[in-house]
Design brief:
Two copies of one chain form a homodimer. By secondary structure, the first copy, chain A, is an alpha+beta fold. Chain A is globular and about 50 Å long. The termini of chain A are far apart. The structure holds zinc ion (4 copies). The site of one zinc ion has 5 residues of chain B, from helix 2. Chain A binds a DNA duplex (30 and 30 nucleotides) through helix 5.
Chain lengths: 168, 168
DNA sequence: TTTATTAATGTTATATTATAACGTATCATT
DNA sequence: AATGATACGTTATAATATAACATTAATAAA
């Protein structure tokens, strides 16, 4: 199992998350002869400002402020599509939002734990889950191509807060 | 494990699916003192016309034709919200679409196998999956409240078609 | 059976998310 | 420099979803 849940849900040196993500992105783009242009890198950086997914129009606002000029939706969607293609980010369908991938080079489960309170979202890669879904698909003669697994609930911090307020 | 995948992916007497769904709906509404009004029942029937999810505006078109009068989006979303609340239908987030639930009274995994070719969508309830997701959540101290699991691929029929055309 | 209360619907407008279309600029190759 | 491919700017619009408020219908009380 591979997850960034401890980082996501606990105080940490987030600049290391950002740096790691940008380094991965540069490597991957070099490998695949893909161009990490200024816009694309900015969008990736914006998504890595936190561990909470951002919607396209939130990205638009932020990029617009960053560049101090108007930015059109198409600009965002193009950058997002590029990053999705490369696996540098993921789309969270239930939120219509996007989030940086913490391990773009690893096997994926496309499994996310989404805090419905604070929005923080951790990714999990888990072979057992993948194997189980594959075997369920096999039994149904369903040719599995991809998956989107979204868990909703409370992150450790928000669970603790809820616990406190119900006790106090 | 509980699934309607055989029904979904094979020729069958679909009127039985419809009748079962409507009977379940009536029972559930009676139990919960909820009113299955004409609009709500029509929307449920429309969703049960096939095993493929329908979007809100597809429902709007169809209900409009059925009633031979204009229908506003709000009408559809209200009916859909009602049916979702009762668990009579599900929302497929990746498709922005809705589908009837084949076993509204059972434990759920909210797991769907979606054919990217023909759109047919089967639901699966599977304790092992649920247990595994629960244990992953526990390890991460994540308080799991709900989940949305979507598998994309080819249904048996479309798999067979693809196989044929690649052979021929 | 009137009256009050609640639940459901009608209606209009608008918010949010996403794509289409087409021209321009930039980059890589020759 | 000429060419073709890729990326971006810009405008418009499509597709999905919600807000707000008036009206009607169903239920409950008087
Ligand atoms: Zn971090
Ligand atoms: Zn990832
Ligand atoms: Zn059927
Ligand atoms: Zn169901």
């Amino acid at each position: 199992m591979l997850t960034n849940s401890r980082l996501v849900h606990q105080p940490h040196d987030h600049s290391r998350c950002i740096n790691a993500a940008l380094a991965s992105a540069n490597n991957l783009c070099a490998e695949k002869n893909a161009r990490l242009t200024a816009t694309r890198e900015s969008v990736l950086r914006l998504l890595w400002q936190s561990h909470q997914p951002l919607g396209a129009y939130q990205l638009q606002d932020r990029l617009s402020k960053l560049l101090n000029k108007p930015v059109a939706p198409a600009t965002i969607y193009r950058a997002v599509d590029f990053l999705l293609q490369l696996g540098l980010i993921h789309r969270i369908a239930s939120l219509n939002a996007y989030i940086g991938c913490p391990f773009p080079n690893s096997e994926h489960s496309n499994l996310f734990m989404i805090c419905t309170d604070c929005g923080s979202t951790a990714e999990v890669a888990h072979n057992t889950i993948n194997d189980l879904l594959q075997s369920i698909s096999d039994k149904a003669h369903f040719t599995l191509k991809s998956q989107s697994l979204e868990l909703f609930g409370l992150c450790p911090q928000c669970s603790a807060d809820t616990e406190e307020s119900s006790n106090g």
